């Protein structure tokens, strides 16, 4: 059985030859959004990929420390194979790696069924559910990150690049003394992933590059490649780019905001209703209602690390409460002021560590439940937020979010039970490893006084 659309292969190979490509980097996102894959010599591409490139299925559950977390079909089943089949429509030459083109793969079990824990598959399923309603979700990702440079003085071996205060919304050498951001913008622009603009973010050493919107799968593919690309470009300079949610105690966190609208089969924005007071359709209200109602479980996918919950808090520009508001940056869901074809919501919940496919899939799942169950949102937040008397708090730690995901059967079913189980097993392992690890905070707090 083959999942490879061989009709697209010859034109793709011809294009690769014209572009001087000799290696195809076949990649797919694991559970935490790391691009796993293999470099394939282009003259072996057709033969190698038409029957799939084999990987060990447990690669989806590899931890950053190299551990392998067990889930159904993994370790306890004897570490069986999966096969990655390229989606040749995604082939893109990598501008900073001459001769290399990146290609995103879909992953299947040897019996031809999809590997259900594959994040790209999870998102495909959600997009399919919207298609059944004649709807197409459109997503515009916004990712923040820090750039670090080596430092012998720092305990971690890294310090913030371009240290300086008050550089928010500046471009140029003041906050980017070596044009690291400018060069990254240009290289990523040449990559064809539709980056549009770059600026210094609020914190020292923190930057943002925006991606143009597109249909949900395309947006996730581009955001996934963006994160990998930013990290690769930093490594070329001996820097470290990190999408860790809150790497420093004295500076803010990095968000992964998602602009989200829905169009119908004719491309008309269905979030808009010019007759409504706030210009939002019933469907938009229900989508917001779904995001509010399912926020604790959605947080597990959008705030998926132990560190994620240190980004939340009052007066952070990150959310803290489960709320929404019209053009209000202190809310979890902001409705930007544009209407007409630009009518959309901005989910500000997610942090930069989220796997792009899973962040988007869980947002779509919650919105779909809101639409299906006609969930009305609470009153919109007015004025500066962060008042815990007015709205529920987001989960306070990863365990609370994972418990919410485990209990939210409706959302879990939309993501797929095998995926949800695998994700929970993977993340519970992370929490447990952290729980038993002695941190520097404990050492500094206790050693001299106790
Ligand atoms: N850094 C903030 C966050 O973690 C967002 C800042 C902004 O509004 O762009 O969500
Ligand atoms: Mg920002």
Topology at a glance:
Elements: H1 9-18, E1 23-29, E2 35-41, H2 42-50, E3 53-56, E4 81-86, E5 92-93, E6 100-108, H3 119-132, E7 135-150, E8 158-160, H4 180-190, E9 195-200, E10 206-211, E11 214-215, H5 216-236, E12 240-242, E13 256-264, H6 282-293, H7 295-302, E14 324-326, E15 333-335, E16 345-347, H8 356-372, H9 398-407, H10 409-415, H11 417-435, H12 440-446
Parallel strand pairs: 1-6, 14-15
Antiparallel strand pairs: 1-2, 3-4, 4-6, 5-6, 7-8, 7-10, 7-11, 7-12, 7-13, 9-10, 13-16, 15-16
Helix pairs in contact: 3-5, 3-8, 4-5, 5-8, 6-8, 7-8, 7-9, 8-10, 9-11
The structure holds glutamic acid and magnesium ion.
State the low-pLDDT regions, or none: none
What about the largest sheet? Answer: 10 strands, mixed
Number of domains: 2
The CATH architecture assignment of the largest domain turns out to be: 2-Layer Sandwich
The overall pLDDT, averaged over residues, is 94
Globular, elongated, flat, extended or rod-shaped: what is the shape? globular
Structural class of the helices, strands and pairings? Answer: alpha+beta
| CATH topology-level fold name of the largest domain | Creatine Kinase, Chain A, domain 2
E-strand count: 16
Within CATH, the superfamily of the largest domain carries the name Glutamine synthetase/guanido kinase, catalytic domain
SSE succession: HEEHEEEEHEEHEEEHEEHHEEEHHHHH
CATH class of the largest domain: Alpha Beta
Distinct small molecules: glutamic acid, magnesium ion
Distance between the termini: 65 Å
SS strand fraction? 15-25%
The count of helical stretches stands at 12
């Amino acid at each position: 059985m083959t999942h490879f659309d061989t009709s697209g292969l010859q034109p793709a190979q011809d294009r690769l030859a014209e572009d001087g490509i000799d290696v195809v980097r076949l990649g797919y996102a694991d559970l935490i959004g790391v691009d796993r894959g293999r470099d394939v010599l282009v003259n072996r591409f057709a033969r190698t990929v038409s029957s799939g490139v084999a990987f060990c299925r447990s690669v989806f559950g590899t931890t950053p420390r190299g551990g392998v977390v067990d889930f159904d079909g993994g370790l306890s089943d004897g570490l069986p194979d999966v096969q990655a089949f390229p989606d040749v429509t995604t082939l893109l030459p990598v501008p900073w790696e001459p001769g290399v083109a990146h290609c995103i793969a879909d992953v299947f079990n040897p019996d031809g069924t999809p590997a259900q824990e594959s994040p790209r598959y999870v998102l495909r399923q959600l997009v399919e559910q919207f298609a059944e309603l004649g709807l197409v979700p459109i997503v515009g990702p916004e990712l923040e990150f820090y750039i670090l440079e080596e430092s012998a003085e720092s305990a971690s071996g890294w310090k913030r690049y371009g240290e300086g205060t008050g550089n928010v919304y500046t471009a140029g050498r003041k906050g980017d003394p070596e044009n690291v951001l400018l060069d990254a913008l240009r290289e990523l622009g040449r990559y064809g992933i539709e980056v549009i603009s770059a600026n210094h973010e609020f914190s020292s050493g923190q930057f943002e590059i925006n991606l143009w919107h597109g249909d949900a799968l395309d947006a996730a593919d581009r955001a996934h490649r963006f994160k990998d690309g930013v990290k690769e470009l930093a490594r070329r300079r001996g820097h470290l780019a990190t999408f860790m949610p809150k790497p420093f105690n004295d500076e803010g966190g990095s968000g992964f905001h998602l602009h989200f609208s829905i169009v119908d089969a004719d491309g008309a924005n269905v979030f808009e209703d010019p007759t409504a007071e706030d210009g939002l359709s019933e469907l938009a209200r229900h989508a917001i209602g779904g995001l509010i109602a399912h926020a604790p479980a959605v947080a597990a996918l959008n705030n998926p690390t132990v560190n994620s919950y240190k980004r939340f808090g009052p007066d952070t520009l990150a959310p803290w409460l489960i709320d929404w508001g019209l053009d209000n940056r202190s809310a979890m869901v902001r409705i930007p002021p544009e209407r007409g074809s630009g009518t959309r919501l901005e989910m500000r919940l997610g942090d930069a560590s989220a796997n792009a496919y899973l962040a988007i899939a869980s947002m779509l799942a919650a919105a779909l439940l809101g639409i299906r169950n006609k969930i009305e949102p609470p009153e919109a937040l007015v004025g500066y937020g962060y008042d815990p008397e007015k709205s529920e708090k987001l989960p306070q730690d990863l365990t609370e979010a994972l418990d919410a995901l485990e209990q939210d059967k409706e959302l879990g079913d939309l993501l797929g039970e095998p995926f949800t189980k695998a994700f929970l097993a993977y993340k519970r392992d992370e929490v447990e490893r952290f729980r038993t690890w002695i941190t520097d905070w404990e050492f500094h707090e206790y050693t001299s006084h106790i």
